[in-house]
Design brief:
Length: 128
């Protein structure tokens, strides 16, 4: 089971991604499955420019909550940007790269986490 801190981090990152129109958000609990992290958040953008905007929005939102990435990869090409926050690793993909790497399949045994939108947010249940 994820700590409240990790769950909150995933929720804040998801909301920032939705705010930039990310889609196909999936959060996985990989606790005990890997030493890399406790959770992965995976999302997609329609093109490289949007992937970069999503990643930047996530970084900005998490910075507001006192969190800074330990490592960032892929910003130059923006086909797959990885934001490593230690206990949470966030993957922002173009659709093509997401299909190619198929992380959901690779981590298919991981429990999927429920992502909740904040009131007035642009998450999965909102009309916009």
């Amino acid at each position: 089971m994820l700590s409240e801190d990790v769950s909150g981090l995933v929720q804040h990152a998801a909301q920032a991604a939705w705010d930039k129109k990310a889609f196909q958000l999936v959060a996985l609990d990989v606790t005990g499955m890997t030493s890399l992290a406790d959770s992965f958040l995976i999302c997609s953008g329609a093109h490289e420019r949007q992937v970069g905007a999503i990643a930047e929005a996530i970084r900005r939102r998490l910075r507001e909550h006192g969190r800074h990435p330990l490592h960032v990869e892929g910003e130059r090409r923006s086909e797959w940007i990885l934001l490593d926050y230690g206990d949470v690793v966030i993957h922002v993909f173009t659709e093509e790269k997401r299909a190619y790497y198929a992380l959901e399949g690779l981590w298919g045994q991981a429990k999927r986490l429920v992502l909740r939108e904040r009131p007035g947010g642009s998450g999965p249940d909102s009309a916009g």
